[in-house]
Design brief:
The complex is a heterotrimer of chains A (296), B (257) and C (428).
Chain A (H helix, E strand, L loop, with lengths): L1 H10 L4 H4 L2 H26 L5 H20 L4 H25 L4 H25 L10 H4 L7 H20 L1 H9 L1 H6 L4 H27 L1 H12 L5 H25 L5 H23 L6
Helix pairs in contact in A: 3-8, 3-11, 3-12, 3-13, 4-5, 4-6, 4-11, 5-6, 5-11, 8-11, 9-11, 11-12, 11-14, 12-13, 12-14, 13-14
Chain B lengths: L7 E10 L2 E11 L4 E5 L6 H8 L7 E6 L4 H4 L3 E4 L13 H6 L3 H4 L7 H13 L15 H14 L4 E5 L7 H16 L3 E6 L5 H4 L2 E5 L3 E6 H4 L2 H8 L3 H16 L2
Parallel strand pairs in B: 3-7, 3-8, 5-6, 6-7
Antiparallel strand pairs in B: 1-2, 1-4, 8-9
Helix pairs in contact in B: 5-6, 6-7
Chain C lengths: L2 H35 L3 H20 L7 H25 L3 H22 L8 H6 L9 E4 L2 E4 H29 L1 H6 L4 H23 L1 H18 L3 H26 L3 H19 L5 H33 L10 H12 L3 E4 L2 E4 L4 H21 L8 H7 L5 H10 L17
Antiparallel strand pairs in C: 1-2, 3-4
Classes of the chains: A mainly alpha (296), B alpha/beta (257), C mainly alpha (428).
C-alpha cells in the first residue's frame, strides 16, 4: 500500500516539498546508513581482490526476494530481504562448489551464477505478475532501486543491519586485513583463512541485500566498489580509507535519494551510482593534480 | 638419556598439484639449529617443500613433524617469510602495520596489538635497519627494503624455526648483506633458519648445511660435503625426464579408467 | 496434450521469436567461447551492461533500434569501457575487477538515467533493458520479398553472419591467441587486432541480444553455453560448435518453457542454459562428477585386483627361493577382488594356496616389475633410506605403463635387481 502511494508520488511532477517530508527524511537516513556501511565492508572486499563477488550475490537475490514473496504472500521488506539473503548465500555456495569441482574459471563462474540467478528471478516475478498475483508487480522495484516505497520501519531495519555489519567489520578488522594482505603468511601463522574469507563474503552479501531497496539488484554492487576505490585515492592508510569510503557511500546514497525523490520516474539506484562515480572522478582528478603519483 | 626430538622432520613427503606429483618422497631431518639452505633449479619444488612444512599445501603422502609434534601444536614457534611477489604492495598499510602482523598470533582474536607488541615490532624493524621508515606505505619502498620488512615481520613472530622463501630474490647487495647478518644472528641465538635459494653462488659462504632438491631430495648434509660435483650434476642435469613422464602417467591413469 | 498439438499451438509467431533467440544465442555462443577460453568473461559481463548509453545516444541521434548507427554506438561504448578499465588499472592503480565494476555500473546507470530522461522521445523501457521483450519481437517486422520478417531476427542474423565470417577468416589467429597470447605476440601475430575485433563482436552481440533478451541475460547467452561446452571438450572448434548447439537448444527450450508456464522468455532461457551447464558438470564424459566418481571406484578396484595378483606372484617367487613373502592385503574390497579373480579363472586354489593362472601371469609380473623398477629408481636418484622405498612403489606399481617402465630401465642402465636384492622381471 505504502509503495503504491510512493509510486504515485513518484509519478507526480517535481515537488521539492516532498523532499522534506518526514518519511523521505527517515528513508534518507536509513539509506545513508546503508551507503556508509557498504563503503566500509566494500573496502575490505576490494582490497581482498573480490570486488565483484557482491555482483553475483546481488543478481541472485532477485530469486530469493521473489520466492519469499511467493511462499509467504507478504510484501514487508524484512521478509523479502531475508529471502534475498538466503538466495545470495546459496549463489555464493554454488560458486564455491564450482571452484572446487569444475574446471570453470572464477570469472566465468561469476557470470554464470549472476546471469542464471537473475534469469530465474525475472522468470519468477514475470510468472507471478502474469498470474495477476497482487503485489507481485512491485517486486520490480528491486531491479533498479526505489526508496520512495520504503516505510520508516523499513529504514530502521536497514540502518540497524548496516550498523551491526560495521560493528562486525570493526571486530574482525585485524584478521580481515591480515588475510587480505598476505594470505599465505596468515595461513602459515595458523589463522583460518578460509573462515575469514567466508565471513567477509557473507558480510558483502549482507550489504548487497540491505542495499537492494536503494540501489537495486543490477547496480547495488557499485555501492561496495566505487566508494572504496574513490577513498583509496586520498589515503595510504587503511583506517582513513574505511572512514572515507563510509563517508563517500553515505553522501552518494543521500544525494541519490534526494535527487530521485524530486525527479519523476527516476529510479534511485542509477542516481546513487552516478553520484558515487562523480565523486570517484573528482577524487582521481584532484589527487592527481595535487600530487602526481610517483612511479612505483 | 632422553634425546631432544629433531627440529624439523620430513617423512616420505609427497606433494601433488592436481594429482600430479611435483615433489617425490622427501625424507629429511634437521636436528641442529643452523643456517640451512634449500637449493635446486627452477621448478624443482623448493617452495613447495617449504609450503608442505607450513601446512600450506596438502600432502599426497607422508608427514611433517616440527619439534617432534604435528604442525598445529607448534605454529607459534614457526616464523615465515613468503615470496615477495605473493602480496599486493599497493595495499594501504604502513611498514609498521605489516611488522605488527607478526605479533597477531600472540594477540589472538578480536584484540588489538598493545604497547608490548608495538615495542617488539619497533625492535624487529631496528634489527633490519628500517626504523626510520616505520610510517611509510609499503609500496613506497625498494625491493630490498620490502624484503627486510617481511623479515622484520618474521622476527616479530619470535619463533624458533624460520622458513624463508627466496629472501634474496631481486634484492640489492646491501639489503642482501643485512638480511644475511640478521639470519646469522638468529642462528647464533640458537634458532633454525631454513632458506630457499635459487642460486648456487655464495651458497658455501652462507649456509651451514644444504638440501639439494630437484623434484626429489638429491642429497642433504653439511654444505661442503653435500655440494659435490656429482650431487650438483644429479640436481641440475638430473632425472627430471623420468619424474616428469611418471608424473604424467600417474595423472593420466588416476583420472579415467 | 501431444507434442504435435503443443507445437501447432505454439504457432508461427512464436516460431519467429524462437528463431530470433536462436540466432542471437548462436552468435553469442561463438563470441562467448573465445571470451571464456581467454578468461575474459568478466569483460563480456561489463560490455553487455555498458553498451546501454551507446545505444541510447545513438537512438537519440536518430538511429533505428538494431540499425547500423546503434551498432556503432554500442561498439564505441564497449571500447570506452575497455579503455577506461585499462586507464584505471595502469594510470590510477585500480585492480582490474574493481575497475570494471566501477566502469560498467557507471555506464549502465548513465544509460538508465538517459532512458528515463528521454522516455517521451524514445521507445525504450527500463524493464526491457533488463529482461527484453522476446515475446513482442514478431510484431515489429520488415517486408523481405513476400515475407514479413521480424526486425530483431534480421539484426540477429546479420550479426551472426558477420561474426561467423569474421571467425572463418581469422580462425587460426583466434586459436593461436586463445591458446597462448604471449607466444602469438612473440610470433608477430596481430594480437591487439584479434582482441579488438572480439570486443567489437561482443558489443554487436549485445546489441542484437538487447531487444530480445535484455542486457543481463545476454551475459547468460555469452558465457553459460561456452562454459558448459568447455567441460565437454578440449579442441576449440569442437567447444565452439558444442556451445552453439547448447545455446540454440537452450533458447528454444527456454522459450517453450516460458510459453508453457506463462512467464518471461529471456529469464527462462537463462534458467535452461543454467540447467544445461549443471548437466555438463555432472555428466561430462571425462571430467563430469559422475565420470570422475566412477573413475575413482574403478581405480580402487583395479588396485585391489592388481595387489592380489602381485601378492600371489611374489609368493610363488618366494616358494622358489625359500624366502617368506608378505601376505596379500585382505580388506573387504581386497577379498572381493580375490573372489572375482578366482571366479574369472585368474587365480586358482591349489593345495590350499592361491596360484596364478598362466593367463594372469604376465599382468602380475608386470606389476611386480613396475614396483621393483620404481624402488630401484628411487634408491638410485633420491636420498631415501632403503626401508622407505616400499610404500611409494606400492602406490606407483599401479600407474606405470610399458613405455615408462622401459624409460626407467634405460635410465637405470638395465640394472637387474632392486635395492632389496630381488630380481626385476623383464618386460613381456
Amino acid at each position: 500500500m505504502t509503495s503504491a502511494v510512493g509510486y504515485l508520488s513518484c509519478l507526480a511532477a517535481i515537488d521539492l516539498s516532498g523532499l522534506l517530508a518526514y518519511n523521505t527524511l527517515i528513508v534518507a537516513a536509513g539509506t545513508a546508513a546503508v551507503g556508509c556501511a557498504a563503503g566500509v565492508v566494500g573496502s575490505l572486499s576490494v582490497l581482498r581482490k573480490r570486488a565483484l563477488v557482491g555482483d553475483a550475490a546481488a543478481h541472485v537475490t532477485l530469486v530469493g526476494v521473489a520466492t519469499a514473496f511467493a511462499l509467504t504472500g507478504r510484501r514487508d521488506l524484512p521478509t523479502l530481504l531475508a529471502g534475498g539473503f538466503a538466495a545470495a548465500l546459496a549463489g555464493l555456495l554454488v560458486l564455491v562448489v564450482m571452484r572446487r569441482y569444475t574446471r570453470t574459471r572464477d570469472d566465468a563462474a561469476t557470470a554464470i551464477v549472476l546471469s542464471v540467478g537473475f534469469g530465474g528471478g525475472i522468470a519468477l516475478v514475470a510468472g507471478m505478475t502474469a498470474r495477476g498475483i497482487p503485489g507481485s508487480a512491485g517486486l520490480e522495484n528491486f531491479l533498479l532501486g526505489h526508496t520512495a516505497a520504503l516505510t520508516a520501519r523499513d529504514a530502521g531495519v536497514l540502518a540497524g543491519v548496516s550498523l551491526a555489519t560495521v560493528v562486525v567489520v570493526m571486530l574482525f578488522l585485524k584478521e580481515a586485513t591480515l588475510v587480505a594482505f598476505d594470505r599465505s603468511f596468515a595461513a602459515a601463522a595458523g589463522w583460518p583463512v578460509a573462515v575469514v574469507d567466508y565471513l567477509l563474503v557473507v558480510l558483502v552479501a549482507v550489504m548487497v541485500v540491505v542495499g537492494l531497496p536503494a540501489a537495486g539488484a543490477v547496480l547495488v554492487t557499485a555501492l561496495v566498489v566505487i566508494p572504496p576505490v574513490a577513498a583509496r585515492q586520498w589515503t595510504d592508510r587503511l583506517g582513513t580509507m574505511l572512514v572515507l569510503a563510509g563517508v563517500i557511500g553515505l553522501v552518494s546514497a543521500v544525494t541519490g535519494v534526494a535527487i530521485s525523490a524530486v525527479v519523476p520516474r527516476l529510479a534511485t539506484g542509477p542516481v546513487i551510482v552516478l553520484v558515487a562515480a562523480a565523486i570517484f572522478a573528482i577524487s582521481v582528478l584532484f589527487t592527481r593534480w595535487r600530487s602526481p603519483r610517483e612511479a612505483a | 638419556m632422553s634425546l631432544a626430538p629433531p627440529l624439523v622432520e620430513f617423512h616420505d613427503v609427497t606433494v601433488a598439484y592436481g594429482r600430479r606429483p611435483v615433489l617425490w618422497n622427501v625424507d629429511l631431518t634437521i636436528s641442529e639449529p643452523c643456517l640451512f639452505g634449500v637449493v635446486g633449479p627452477n621448478g624443482a619444488g623448493k617452495s613447495t617443500l617449504l609450503k608442505a612444512a607450513l601446512g600450506l599445501v596438502p600432502l599426497a603422502g607422508g608427514m611433517v613433524r616440527l619439534f617432534g609434534q604435528p604442525l598445529e601444536r607448534v605454529r607459534r614457534r614457526v616464523g615465515y617469510v613468503p615470496q615477495r611477489e605473493t602480496v599486493d604492495w599497493d595495499f594501504p598499510v604502513s611498514v609498521m602495520d605489516v611488522v605488527l602482523m607478526g605479533t597477531y598470533s600472540r594477540v589472538g582474536w578480536l584484540r588489538r596489538p598493545a604497547a608490548a607488541e608495538r615495542a617488539v615490532a619497533r625492535e624487529s624493524l631496528a634489527r633490519v635497519g628500517l626504523e626510520d621508515l616505520a610510517d611509510r606505505q609499503i609500496g613506497r619502498l625498494s625491493g630490498g627494503q620490502q624484503q627486510r620488512v617481511f623479515l622484520a615481520r618474521a622476527l616479530a613472530q619470535q619463533a624458533d624455526v624460520y622458513f624463508l622463501d627466496e629472501p634474496m630474490a631481486g634484492v640489492d647487495a646491501r639489503s642482501q648483506e643485512q638480511i644475511l647478518a640478521v639470519l646469522s644472528g638468529l642462528r647464533d641465538a640458537g634458532k633454525l633458519v631454513i632458506v630457499v635459494h635459487h642460486d648456487l653462488r655464495a651458497v658455501t659462504d652462507w649456509f651451514d648445511a644444504v638440501a639439494l632438491i630437484d623434484m626429489r631430495l638429491v642429497a642433504a648434509g653439511p654444505t661442503r660435503e653435500t655440494l659435490t660435483p656429482d650431487n650438483l650434476r644429479r640436481t641440475y642435469a638430473g632425472a627430471i625426464d623420468v619424474l616428469d613422464e611418471v608424473g604424467r602417467a600417474v595423472q593420466r591413469r588416476s583420472r579415467t579408467p | 496434450m501431444t507434442s504435435a498439438d503443443f507445437l501447432s499451438e505454439v504457432g508461427p509467431m512464436h516460431g519467429w521469436a524462437m528463431a530470433t533467440a536462436a540466432v542471437v544465442s548462436a552468435a553469442a555462443a561463438m563470441v562467448g567461447t573465445l571470451l571464456v577460453v581467454r578468461r575474459m568473461s568478466l569483460l563480456g559481463d561489463a560490455i553487455s551492461h555498458a553498451v546501454l548509453p551507446g545505444i541510447v545516444v545513438a537512438v537519440l541521434a536518430g538511429g533505428r533500434p538494431g540499425g547500423p548507427l546503434v551498432i556503432v554506438g554500442a561498439v564505441v561504448a564497449a571500447l570506452v569501457t575497455v579503455w577506461l578499465t585499462q586507464v584505471l588499472r595502469d594510470g590510477v592503480g585500480v585492480a582490474e575487477d574493481a575497475g570494471a565494476g566501477v566502469v560498467f555500473t557507471t555506464l549502465f546507470a548513465l544509460g538508465v538515467v538517459l532512458v528515463t530522461a528521454a522516455a517521451s522521445r524514445i521507445d525504450l523501457d527500463p524493464g526491457c533493458i533488463l529482461y527484453g521483450i522476446l515475446e513482442l519481437v514478431p510484431f515489429d517486422t520488415i517486408s523481405v520479398g513476400r515475407w514479413n520478417v521480424p526486425r530483431a531476427f534480421l539484426t540477429g542474423l546479420a550479426v551472426l553472419v558477420l561474426i561467423g565470417l569474421g571467425l572463418l577468416v581469422t580462425w587460426r589467429l583466434q586459436v593461436f591467441v586463445a591458446f597462448d597470447a604471449d607466444a602469438a605476440r612473440a610470433a608477430g601475430m596481430p594480437v591487439a587486432a584479434a582482441t579488438l575485433s572480439l570486443l567489437a563482436a561482443t558489443a554487436m552481440t549485445a546489441v542484437a541480444g538487447f531487444e530480445a533478451v535484455g542486457a543481463i541475460l545476454v551475459v547468460a547467452m555469452l558465457v553459460v553455453p561456452a562454459a558448459a561446452a568447455e567441460l565437454l571438450g578440449r579442441r576449440l572448434s569442437r567447444v565452439m560448435a558444442m556451445a552453439v548447439a547448447l545455446g540454440v537448444v537452450g533458447s528454444v527450450l527456454g522459450y517453450l518453457a516460458a510459453w508453457k508456464w506463462n512467464t518471461n522468455a529471456a529469464g527462462m532461457i537463462a534458467v535452461v542454459l543454467g540447467v544445461e551447464y549443471a548437466m555438463a558438470v555432472i555428466f561430462a564424459p571425462e571430467e563430469g562428477l559422475l565420470a570422475r566418481g566412477i573413475g575413482q571406484i574403478w581405480l580402487r578396484w583395479r588396485v585391489a585386483c592388481e595387489d592380489q595378483l602381485a601378492a600371489v606372484w611374489r609368493r610363488e617367487e618366494a616358494a622358489g627361493t625359500g624366502l617368506a613373502a608378505a601376505a596379500a592385503p585382505h580388506g573387504f574390497i581386497d577379498r572381493l577382488a580375490r573372489a572375482w579373480l578366482a571366479m574369472a579363472g585368474r587365480l586358482r586354489r591349489v593345495d590350499g594356496e592361491w596360484t596364478l593362472d598362466p593367463r594372469a601371469r604376465p599382468a602380475a609380473e608386470m606389476i611386480v616389475r613396475s614396483h621393483r623398477l620404481w624402488e630401484a629408481w628411487l634408491g638410485r636418484h633420491a636420498e631415501l633410506p632403503v626401508d622407505h622405498l616400499h610404500p611409494p612403489a606400492e602406490w606407483m606399481e599401479h600407474h606405470l605403463g610399458a613405455d615408462v617402465r622401459r624409460q626407467i630401465e634405460a635410465d637405470l642402465g638395465w640394472q637387474a635387481s632392486d635395492p632389496h636384492g630381488s630380481e626385476i622381471p623383464p618386460e613381456r
